[in-house]
Structure formats: C-alpha cells, structure tokens
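Hi all, long-time lurker, first post. I run a small reading group and we've been trying to get comfortable going from sequence to structure in the token notation. Rather than ask abstract questions, I figured I'd post a concrete chain and ask someone more experienced to write out its structure so we can walk through it together at our next meeting. Sequence below, copied exactly:
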Amino acid sequence: MREAVTPTNNRLRKIFEALEENGVRAEPVVYAEEFHDEIREQLLGFDGVLVWVDPLSDGKTRARLDPLLREIAQKGVWVSSHPDTILKMGTKEVLYKTRQLGWGTDTHLFQSSDELREHFPLLLREAGPRVLKQNRGNGGQGVWKIEWLGGPKDRVRVLHAKRGSAPEDLSLDDMLARCEAYFAASGCIIDQPFQQRLPEGMIRVYSGKDKVVCFGHQLIKALIPPPPEGPDSEAAQPGPRIMSGADDSKFQTLRRKMEDEWVPQMMGIVGLTREALPIIWDADFLYGPKTASGDDTYVLCEINVSAVFPIPDEAPAAIAKLVRQRLLEGPR
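-- Answer (accepted) --
Happy to help. Here is the structure in token form:
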C-alpha cells in the first residue's frame, strides 16, 4: 500500500484536491510499524502533517506512532492532530472531565478494577442500564451496554458495540473480569447511563478548529439488540449517514451550543488553545430526554480526533483553508 498509494487513489483524495486548489502540495503517507524509521525520515521533510490513524487496529495501538509525532513536532513540523491534543479531548475520559457541561450526563470514571467492582454494581442496580467504555478505542471496541437481571450470581445482560455482536447473559463478576484488560491498555473506564432515545439515531458534528463545518445523522444499531434474523443480517446493519451542511435547520440549536458554549468551555477544562484544536474532528451526540417544553437535549457519547472518517463533502474545503492558514503562520 505504501508503494501504490497516490493522492488520487485513496479515500482522502478530495482532501488532496482541496489542498492543491489552495496552493498546498500534499503527499500520502501510509503508516505501518514495520516502516517506522523510514516514515520518520519522510515526515521530517514536511512543513506539516495531517494524521488519521485508528487508536486500535488489528491488535496494534498508537504506542510507537505517538512518540514519533511528538518528536517531529518538537523538531518544527506542525502536527494535526497532535497526540497530546488527542489525550486531552479525543479519549473517553473527556466525557468525565466535561460531565458538568450542557452535553454531560451522570458520568463516572473508574481507575482500577477494584474501583469498578466497588461502585459499579450499585449504580447498575439503582440507575438502570449503563454503558461502560474503555478510554481509547474505535469501531465500538470496548463499549458495552449492561442491564441488571438479578437472580443467582447477579446475572446481567450485555451487548458489545462492535458490529455483529449479540446479547449475552452472564454473571456481573464475569463481565467485570472482561473489563480488567482495559485498565492496562488505557488506564480507566468511563460509565454513562444508556440513552433510551438511541434508536432515533446519532448526530455527528464535524468541526474545523472551533467552528462547525457540517453534520451527519445516522440510525446506528450499536447497543441495540439485533432483530430475529441475527446480528449479521441486513436488518441489523446501520442506516446511511445523512450528511448536511452547517446551516441545516434541524441542528442550529446544537450548532450554537457547540460554538458558543460547549467547545470554549471544554477548551478551558482540558487546557487547550484554539491553535491546538484539530483541523478536523467530530463529536457524536445522542438525543437526551426532552425538556418540559418538548425541546431536544443532546448527550455527548464520544469525540473522534485520531481517525475522522467518513467526512462530508463540505469538510475538504474547510480542512484545506485551515491548513493553508496554519502553514502561512510558519513554525512555532
């Protein structure tokens, strides 16, 4: 793939086209640990690097990539998204740190298996279905819906968010044992209440720096029990992501809250400047309970920084404009 890739034969080709139209020459770099040293020399030859690499992929993590990106950034290469920015806003821990914001909910953080076993069972019994999330992951990996069944051995019903998963009934102790590996890999587990309006879909808000670029609305199937035909059936697959521009009338309240309240507040909480915000990132929202007047509320379930794709048609132009502005500013 490294040998074959060009600016025109990959899924990011529209971004390459937009960069070229803005006077920015860009080259594709396929990352693989086997070519680590070769890639390092390649990246040091650029003025800036746009990075989209999954946190987890085929059993591998960003453990070698992130130190490399920090090194080239220290040598004067601009990196978006910087690993330190990802740690501040692109992991599940941000859900806990910003739980008091308008996008927050009853969110808990567990830093050890002992903490999880001490506090989570009571939450589950008293507050209804919960969702446990490992700190770093993608594609639903390490995200579980857990429902209390009771009875002998404190039975629970669990459903993994990975596509093709089916519900399982097992003891709570066995379920918590499955989560122990998440502490070693990412340091903590986040707990949130299951959102009952999940079948109404997820709203993905794409932002360039601190401004909303566009929206994507999708009827997702993760954490929803599969139909009788089974988890791999056509009926169990998510619906298409319906993309729309930043001026979509359905989401103007959400846009105003993001731009005027939530993003500035998040930046203050996690310690980020506007310059450190990613060129493109997205926040996934579920519908929360309606207000007494019937208005929608929104609950943040994830921020994606490491790997943001698919992107709407409006995104490449916004990315290219922001990249050009940043490169003209020069090294910092």
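A couple of things your group might point at:
The first strand starts at residue 48 and ends at 50.
The CA atoms of residues 138 and 260 lie 28 Å apart.
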